[in-house]
Amino acid sequence: MTTTDSTTEPDETESAVETARRQLERAAAHLDIDEGVIERLRHPTSVYRVSIPLERDDGSQEMYTGYRAHHDSVRGPYKGGLRYHPGVTEDECIGLSMWMTWKCAVMDIPFGGAKGGVIVDPKDLSSNEKERLTRRFAEELRPMIGPMRDIPAPDMGTGPQSMAWFMDAYSMQEGQTEPGVVTGKPPVVGGSYGREEAPGRSVGIVTREALAYYDRDPAETAVAVQGFGSVGANAARYLDELGASIVAVSDVDGAIYDPDGLDTGDVEGHDESPGMVSGYDAPETLTNEELLELDVDVLIPAAIGNVLTGENARGVDADMIVEGANGPTTSTADQIFEERDVPVIPDIIANAGGVTVSYFEWLQDINRRSWRLERVNEELETEMRRAWTDVRREYESRDVTWRDATYIVALERIAAAHEARGLWP
Ligand SMILES: NC(=O)C1=CN([C@@H]2O[C@H](COP(=O)(O)OP(=O)(O)OC[C@H]3O[C@@H](n4cnc5c(N)ncnc54)[C@H](OP(=O)(O)O)[C@@H]3O)[C@@H](O)[C@H]2O)C=CC1
Ligand SMILES: O=C(O)CCC(=O)C(=O)O
C-alpha cells in the first residue's frame, strides 16, 4: 500500500457528507471521468425534510423531524435505509445516501442511493408510539417513495417490524398492497428470508475473503466487534461459526471481553434485548474506546460512524479493519491507517449484503415469489465473491488502498451510466 495525498485537509469534526466527498475526490483522481459527472455526484438530487406529529401514550404531543436524501438514480430507483437515532442530521443522511449509491454500484445491482431517518431515540418510545411515528413518517414520505422510485429499508434503530408498519401505511394510502415499497420486512408480509442477517453475513464473508488474501487462518484469528445489533451480532456469529475467536463485543454502554473467545450465540443481540450485551457475565468488561484499541487480528466497528479518528487511530492495534458500520473511519484516521499499512476493508462492500438481499427481496415482491433461505444465502455468497474479485483486481493492479479500489469499481460503473444517459442538458 502507498500513500496518496488527500486533496484537502481533513478535520475531526467532519460530517458524513464531508467524508463521503473526500472519498469520492480520492477515487476520482485515479480515473478519467468527466468533471461534470464528478460535480453531479458531489451533490444529492434532492433532500426532503418532514415534520412528524406524534401523540405520546400519555396524551402529550410532540413534533419530530425526519429526512429522506436522494443522491443518485442513474442506475435505478433510489435505495437505502431509514435510521431512528437522536444524532440524525440532514448532512448525515446526504453522506449516507452517497455511500448507498457507491454500494449498489459495487454490487452491480440496479439501484441508486438514498437514506433517511428521524431524529429520535427509539428507546424513549413505546412500541405503540414507534408504530404511530413510523406510520406517519410513511404518510409524509409517500410522494417521494414507491417500488419503482425510492425503496426504503432498515438501518440503525429500525427493523422488520418498522418496515411492516411502513409498508402497511403506504399500502393503505395507495389502496392496494405494495410489498415492494420497502425491503427488510418480515417474510410473512413479503420480506426475504435472510435479509436481517445479510449485512452481518456479508461482513463475515468479506472478512473471510480478506483473511484468505493475507494468508490468515480464521481458526487463528481474534476478532473484536463494536456494536451487537443487526450487523455486529450477525457478523460475530458468522465468524464464530467459521472458527474465529470473538474476543470482544459491545453495546452502547460498554464491551465484554474474553481472551479465550465468547460464545456469541449465548450473548443476546440488540434485536433480542437492546442494551443487554454489557450486562452479560463475561470475564472482563471494557469501555467501547478500549475495545477499539484491543490487540486483535480483526477489528469490526459495527455500531455508529466516526469512531476511528485522528485521536485513536495510532492506538488501534488490530492487523486489519473491516467496516461493518457505515462511515466508522474519519479521513484523518484513514490516512493514519494507510501510513501504518493497516488494511481497511470499506463499508460499501463489507456491509453490502444488506442491500443485496434487499434487491433479492424486491425481485421476490414484484414477481410475487418467495425464495428459500438456502437460495438467498447461495446467491448472496455468489454476489459477494464477484464484488470482492472486482475490487481485488483494482487493488492488485493499481497502487491504492482497499477503499480507493472499491470506489474505483463503483465510480466507473456510475460514470459510464451517466455518460450513456447524458447528464448536462
Ligand atoms: N441494518 C442494516 O440493514 C444495515 C446497517 N448498516 C450500518 O451498520 C451500523 C449498525 O446498524 P444496525 O446493526 O442495523 O443497528 P442496530 O440498531 O441493530 O444495532 C446497533 C448496535 O450498536 C450499539 N450502539 C449504538 N450506539 C453506540 C455507541 N455510541 N457506541 C457503541 N455501540 C453503540 C447498539 O447498542 P444498544 O443495543 O445498547 O443500543 C447496538 O448493539 C450502522 O452504521 C448502520 O448504518 C449497514 C448496512 C445495513
Ligand atoms: O437494504 C437496503 O436497502 C439498505 C440498507 C442500508 O441502509 C445500508 O446498506 O446502509
TrEMBL record:
GO terms for molecular function: glutamate dehydrogenase (NAD+) activity. Residues 192-422 form the Glutamate/phenylalanine/leucine/valine/L-tryptophan dehydrogenase C-terminal domain. Keywords: Oxidoreductase. It comes from the Archaea. Transmembrane segments: none annotated. The active site is at residue 115. CDD domains: NAD_bind_1_Glu_DH. GO terms for biological process: L-glutamate catabolic process. The record marks 155 as: Important for catalysis. InterPro entries: Aminoacid_DH-like_N_sf, Glu/Leu/Phe/Val/Trp_DH, Glu/Leu/Phe/Val/Trp_DH_C, Glu/Leu/Phe/Val/Trp_DH_dimer, Glu/Leu/Phe/Val_DH_AS, Glu_DH, GluDhGdhB, NAD(P)-bd_dom_sf. Gene3D superfamilies: Leucine Dehydrogenase, chain A, domain 1 (3.40.50.10860), NAD(P)-binding Rossmann-like Domain (3.40.50.720). Homohexamer. Belongs to the Glu/Leu/Phe/Val dehydrogenases family. This is Glutamate dehydrogenase. It comes from Natrinema salifodinae.
